[in-house]
Design goal:
The complex is a heterotrimer of chains A (140), B (278) and C (145). Chain A has 140 residues and is of the alpha/beta class. Chain A contains five helices and six strands. Chain A has one domain (4-135): CBS-domain (Roll), CATH 3.10.580. Chain C is of the alpha/beta class and 145 residues long. Classes of the chains: A alpha/beta (140), B alpha/beta (278), C alpha/beta (145). At the A-B interface, helix 2, helix 4 and helix 5 of A face helix 2, helix 3, helix 5 and helix 6 of B.
Chain lengths: 140, 278, 145
């Protein structure tokens, strides 16, 4: 039975709780994925979702200039939009269970080993898993 | 896994020139839904709640202050579309659709049969397909149950707490699930609370909570293999049941009492998971 | 478990049945209840008699259910199908009694707002009169299995 440990990358996209929204956007742009973890003192505190970052940006109807928007986002801490109630799972959790949790909660789940964050599993990772599973020939 | 077994019907159709605010209200009434976007008679994409949130006013109040309603009223559905829609043929495989959505950062794909759009496949549909595919080899199970019990015998229905508990624990044992036993206490009657000295109602409530927790703990049989947790809440029964179900991500709620009662009915209507009325 | 289905809700409840029964390998019987068949007449002549119409509808219903039965059997469950004619709630309760069901599963499409207080649904009737536990899922607004 495949577990989420096979989905995790080399390191987890994360920022400190004192980081700003611009910092979170920078990490997401560089690493891709669905979310950035927020840590304080080495402990997992919550997630900043790519969707929430996009929703935090003003619409095209804003009267602010692009520079003013970025300047404002550089002063807003990630904790302003961080989701604290995030489902957490262990490394040995079956992928099917993780897929169900991500689908039902609508957010990525955090993979913890004890209190330490070891990875995130989101729709992006699970779609890649589906490709792999569907394209593997099944033994007869 | 062919896509035609996974696809769904969209919640409706919206024109690209339609007001974003109106499209948002339509999607808000169908949280899991999506809308086909049409432009000059041709379907050009799929609109989801995430798209309208990204294109709409900022969720940060200090930034939203610079987006007056008179300006945001001019936002249209076209402003919310994130590039050209992903279109897949009806005979596409789930893996192909997954790759297309992943690489193009989209949440839903249009399924076309020739020139006609016949359905939509969303990320959620693909996640369900992944779950089902993986569970062919290892059987699916329930991971978390919520069992609503009363430490004292229930009134009416002839079915006591023991039956609800027995059924809940049996299901938990078969699935290797974590079972949460929940008891919801009624709040102290205002008439009684008024007769107590200052601060006395808090003391009585603490005493009642402690008593309820102890009674609930005594209900749990010793030596069982299932992981059982207990929880006691005070207040409205349905609100408490649903709150704990949400907190524990319950896959199933097991509850007793009279099955056709308003309480059971309301739980069924509002729960995010199935309800087993014992 | 007796599972009351119709054309629009089977896809919603069958995955839950699969998930609920799979660990223990239980029995599932999918029940489809159709309204009583009527003879088809034209210009005062009976073209199709009621029993012929019923037979035709029964075959179509079994064909519809066979896909779901196959899917459940493929998961290792003992699954079967049954078609009855009559009022859905009464037919379901009778089928549960005849088959000796341990539980009944239904999909609820509750009326909204003020209509809730005036509309007595099939699910309400089953909840009120069933001698066995009733599993209720909803057609919308609820997570999938």
């Amino acid at each position: 039975m495949e577990t989420v440990s096979t989905l995790l990358g080399y390191d987890t996209p994360a920022v400190d709780a004192d980081a700003t929204l611009v910092d979170a956007e920078t990490v997401l742009r560089a690493r891709g994925g669905d979310a950035v973890a927020v840590e304080r003192g080495g402990r997992f505190r919550g997630l900043v979702l790519a969707d929430d970052l996009a929703a935090a940006r003003p619409s095209m109807a804003t009267t602010l200039t692009f520079g003013e928007v970025n300047g404002a986002l550089m002063r807003i801490p990630v904790t302003a939009i961080m989701r604290r109630d995030v489902a957490t799972i262990a490394l040995e959790t079956p992928i099917a269970e993780a897929a169900r949790l991500v689908r039902d909660t609508g957010t990525p789940v955090a993979v913890l080993a004890g209190d330490s964050l070891v990875g995130l599993v989101g729709p992006h990772d699970l779609l890649a898993a589906l490709e792999r599973v569907e394209e593997d020939p099944r033994p007869e | 896994m062919p896509i035609k077994t996974l696809m769904r019907s969209p919640s409706g159709v919206v024109e690209a020139t339609e007001s974003l605010a109106i499209a948002t209200r339509r999607l808000a009434s169908e949280p899991d839904g999506c809308l086909l976007v049409r432009n000059r008679g041709r379907v050009v994409g799929v609109l989801t709640m995430a798209d309208v949130r990204a294109a709409g006013p900022s969720t940060i109040p200090t930034l939203a202050a610079y987006e007056s309603p008179s300006l945001t009223a001019h936002l249209t559905v076209a402003d919310a579309l994130r590039g050209e829609g992903v279109v897949v043929p009806l005979n596409a495989a789930a893996a192909d659709v997954a790759r297309a959505l992943r690489t193009r950062q989209q949440r839903a794909a249009l399924v076309a049969d020739g020139a006609d759009v016949v359905g939509v496949v969303t990320t959620e549909d693909l996640l369900s397909a992944l779950t089902e595919r993986l569970e062919r080899d290892s059987p699916p199970r329930l991971a978390r149950l919520l069992v609503a019990v009363s430490p004292s015998p229930t009134v009416g229905g002839g079915r006591g707490t023991r039956t609800v508990l027995d059924i809940g624990l049996e299901i938990g044992r078969r699935h290797g699930a974590t079972v949460t036993l929940l008891h919801v206490m009624r709040r102290l009657s205002p008439r009684i609370a008024e007769g107590l000295p200052v601060g006395g109602d808090s003391d009585v409530q603490r005493w009642r909570l402690a008593g309820a927790r102890a009674s609930l703990a005594r209900l749990v049989p010793t030596g069982i293999e299932t992981t059982v947790r207990t929880a006691v809440r005070a207040g409205e029964v349905v609100d408490a049941v649903l709150a704990v179900a949400a907190e524990t991500l319950a896959d199933l709620i097991v509850m007793g009492g009279r099955r056709g009662s308003a309480l059971v009915r309301e739980t069924i209507c509002r729960a995010r998971c199935p309800v087993l009325a014992v | 478990m007796l599972v009351l289905v119709d054309g629009s809700t089977a896809w919603r409840v069958v995955p839950w049945i699969r998930r609920l029964l799979a660990p223990a390998g239980g029995d599932a019987r999918l029940l489809l209840v159709l309204p009583p068949a009527r003879a088809v007449t034209a210009a005062g002549r009976t073209i199709v008699f009621a029993d012929q119409q019923e037979q035709s509808e029964r075959l179509a219903a079994h064909f519809f259910l066979s896909g779901f039965v196959s899917r459940l059997c493929g998961e290792g469950l003992a699954a079967s199908a049954e078609v009855r004619f009559g009022k859905p709630a009464a037919a379901t309760l009778e089928a549960a009694r005849d088959w000796g069901a341990d539980a009944i599963a239904v999909v609820d499409s509750p009326a909204r707002g003020w209509r809730r207080w005036f509309t007595r649904t099939v699910v309400d009737e089953i909840l009120n009169h069933s001698p066995v536990p009733v599993l209720v899922t909803r057609a919308s607004g609820q997570r999938a299995a």
